[in-house]
Amino acid sequence: MKLFDVYPLFDLEIVSGKGCYTYDSHGTEYLDLYGGHAVISIGHSHPYYVNRITEQAKKLVFYSNSVVNSLQQQLADKLGALSGYDDYSLFLINSGAEANENALKLASFHTGKKKVIAFAHSFHGRTSAAVKVTDNPRIVAPINDTFEVAFLPLNDMARVEQEMAGGDVCAVIIEGIQGVGGIQIPEVQFLQELREACSRHHVVLILDEVQSGYGRTGKFFAHQYAGIRPDLITVAKGMGNGFPIGGVLISPQFTPVYGMLGTTFGGNHLACAAACAVLDVMRDEHLVDNAARVGQYLIDRLREIPQIKEVRGKGLMIGLEFDQPVKELRNRLLFEQHVFTGASGTHVIRLLPPLSLSQEQADCFIGKLKTILS
Ligand code: PLP
């Protein structure tokens, strides 16, 4: 059987990783400034994390959600404490798209409506509802009439008010910082006004923190820079440091009803062990503070490089926009300088390193980038 060929691949195989480095099948070391789409939060093969998963795997990998799994409550307690949302409830699934799918469902149940406001250049995943609220020309959306969606320009409060005036909107879904859309940051005032308008119109505010959450921006969630509290927050990616897990943080105004949501694998023992280990390491190694400090350092150094048109971002979620397409530059960084980076569209390099990146590693990247650009 051959693989269904829907992703372009670099011609190299990564076989291991340690901290902020990965190693290919020939033993070549790469500085990882991408963390496999923002997934590696605490660094590759962190010993505490490896031990926690290994010990759990020896005991029990999975048992169904028809019996108590105390690891889920452990995870919820740790997440509540570290994120500042201990009064919210947690529903566990396996990925970011699933988190958004369930958040949209909850919003629709809660309000009895099916219109959703999303924003230009948004990306919320590829399941049937998540892809419907995604505005990206490269992503093929199937025919799907579950939700009616209005895509509005980011930061345009007048258009949001206009759309909400119809009284048929169930939810607004917005990324803490747009990742796939090119590291676009919603304005603080816009988020605050959005929060107020959602409350006034009884619309559910969903913050998609799948990419911008879990400490990446130097706060636990990117929206915390605006001091707002959404109704639903979706998480995944860095939550399991590579182990598939996602979640929806649900505000106390939602009442759970049996049968409302469900999952087979969501919150399984192994996933919870991985996610608990991630939060322990984030807390003990102060990784959110590290992301804020090293991220700001990296942003400041990058802004000194004249060939970069614009540097955008917060913490360790950074976009470098160039006047020319970045494909060649990324290839040279990878194959000549052995640095992994990501891209958003054609002209933006996207940096999403492990939150443990050191200042020395940031300097090392700057040196390699300057070599290629000079
Ligand atoms: N939401 C955002 C903001 C994302 O960046 C992504 C993935 O890139 C998703 C949702 C979908 O997550 P997953 O690929 O885990 O389904």
Automatic annotation (TrEMBL):
Belongs to the class-III pyridoxal-phosphate-dependent aminotransferase family. PROSITE patterns: AA_TRANSFER_CLASS_3 (PS00600). SUPFAM superfamilies: PLP-dependent transferases (SSF53383). Pfam families: Aminotran_3. Keywords: Aminotransferase, Pyridoxal phosphate, Transferase. GO terms for molecular function: identical protein binding; pyridoxal phosphate binding; transaminase activity. The keyword Transferase applies. Its cofactor is pyridoxal 5'-phosphate. InterPro entries: Aminotrans_3, Aminotrans_3_PPA_site, Class-III_PLP-dep_AT, PyrdxlP-dep_Trfase, PyrdxlP-dep_Trfase_major, PyrdxlP-dep_Trfase_small. The lineage of its organism: Bacteria, Pseudomonadati, Bacteroidota, Bacteroidia, Bacteroidales. This is Acetylornithine aminotransferase. It comes from the Bacteria.
